[in-house]
Amino acid sequence: MLELLKLMLKEEVRIHTCLFPSLFFYLFPVMIFLLSFFLKFAIQDTIFLVKIFFVVVFFTGFRSGGYGVQAREIYLRKFPHLNFLLYSYLAMPIENFKIMCALFLKEVIFHFFWFLLPFVLGIFGFNFSILIKATAIFLFANSLSFLLSNLYNRKILFIPSLIAAIILILLFFDSMVNYPIATFLATIFVFSLSLKTVDFEYYSRKVYHKNLFNSLIKYFKSPLISKDFIDLKRSYGFFRIAFSFILPLIVVFFIFSIFKKLGILLVEENIFYSLMLGLIS
Questions:
Q1: Pick the residue with more confidence: 279 or 132?
Q2: b/e map of 41-60 (b: 16 or more CB within 10 Å)?
Q3: Whole-angstrom distance, CA of residue 135 vs CA of residue 141
Q4: Which of 34, 140, 158, 224 has its CA 20 to 30 A from that of 24?
Q5: 197 lies in some domain
Q6: What's the chain's average pLDDT?
Q7: Is residue 32 within 8 Å of 60, Cβ to Cβ?
Q8: Which residue range(s) make up the domain with 148?
Q9: Which of residues 268 and 232 earns the better pLDDT score?
Q10: Is 102 buried (19+), middle (13-18) or exposed (0-12) by CB count in 10 A?
Q11: Total domains present in the chain
Q12: Does residue 275 form part of some domain?
């Protein structure tokens, strides 16, 4: 598995250098270090700075943990001509368990040196206690995002799981920061659940639709509107439209709840919701 992990790290570098200029990619940790270093002088309140730090670490880990969604929606569409090690089990005798463990370790190692370590060093210097707590928060957020992305792909209790995760994080975020050992144990538990739900296979099925055009054209009086309505219905477009409004609302509620609990003031909720709506939609 060590050889697989080494190859995955090389693959991660290859992906990022394809997405971004090579110079920007290699200088990104330096930029994070400098920005966090100046942030330390910009925010004089140490308690407030620590709260901001752990919230940023959590969201960074959560963003980097959606392997299930990334593998399908991003990598295969952005780079259809490349063969990813994530799908090597289709052609080589490699167990899915080893692939997913190597993938998790790859994400942790890569983002630890690419973002987390420079971020900690810039603000706190080499503070071992802060580094351990930040690593625990990052790992938990990473594994939680992994689990939710798998549930999203399999269409299994995604919305209830997302709501439950938001509630638990709001209730126990401070405890997660203060008790890193418990957070590490929670990470192992969540990652174990993720391994049970991961699925990268595509399943095809025949779908039959009722002819609605004749009835709709009598109602809309327009063949174009009728066709668009049928396309939206058959492609589940109405759900996607509704979801594009609901998901930003959930994200805004989640972010404002955490920042309000931490005593952080942001812009007005409706302005922030508009920004998230534009980004996600």
A1: 132
A2: eeeeeeeebbbbbbbbbbeb
A3: 10
A4: 140
A5: yes
A6: 75
A7: no
A8: 2-203
A9: 232
A10: buried
A11: 1
A12: no
